[in-house]
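Suppose you are handed a protein chain with no further information: no name, no annotation, nothing but its sequence. What can you learn? This example shows the usual starting point.
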Amino acid sequence: MPAWLIALIAVAAVGLVAFVWLRARAPSDRANGERRLDTVAAWSPTATRILTSAERQAFSTLERALPGHIILAQVPLARFLKVPTRHSYSEWLRRLGTQCADLVVCDMASEVLAVVNVQPPAGAESERARKRLNRMGRVLKAAGIPMHVWTDTALPSVEAAREMILPKPAAAPAAAAAPSPVADTRVRPSRPTPFDELDRDESLDERIEMREPPPSTWFDEFNSGPTPLAPGENRGGDKRGA
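A reasonable first move is to predict its three-dimensional structure. Written in C-alpha cells, the prediction is:
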C-alpha cells in the first residue's frame, strides 16, 4: 500500500476520533433546551409588591421625616456605586452589585445621603442574610454612605428617623457680646440677589452641582474580562509586567 494512502487513512482516523470526542463533551440538546425557551412563555410574569408591610411603613416614616428629599426603594447597589474596572466588573456585580438597598435617601439632586435596611430582629435572620448585610455595610462605609438598620417590629418615630438621618449639628457656644449702650441703626448695604439684573455679582449666586448617576450596569454598557481572571493577567489578557 502506498505511503501517502496510509497517511491519508491515519489523518481520517484521527479526525473521526476527534469528532466523536468533541460530540461526547458537547452539552446535549436536552441540556441546552432550557436556554432556548421563550422568556415570556416559559416564565409567565405576574406583578407583585415591591415592599413588605414593614418596608412600606419605613418608607412612609422617611417621607414624613424628610420633606424635600427623594426616597427610593429597592435600589441595586450598582445603580448608585461606581467601582474601578481594572478587575472583572462582572465578578463584582455577581458578588454585590445586584444586591438591593431597601430604602435610599437622596437630596433633590439625587445625591445619596443614607441607606436604610429593614431587617427582622437580631437572631431571626439567616446566616446568609446576615453575611450579605455585613458585606453591604462594609461597601457602603467605604463609599462614605451611612447605612441604618431598622428592626421591622420596632420602627423609629418620625422625629427619631429625622435625627438619625440628618442629625442636627452641635450648637457652637455663643460668644459673649460686649454691651452697647446705643443700638446701631445704620443701614448696611445688602448682598445682591438673583433678581437684580444690573451690577449683579454672579460669583455670589448659589450653584448646585448636577452630577449624573453611573450608567446602567446590567452588562449592556460594560465590557468585562473573564471571571475570574487568570493569575498574573489583567483585564486585557496580557501578562502583568510584560
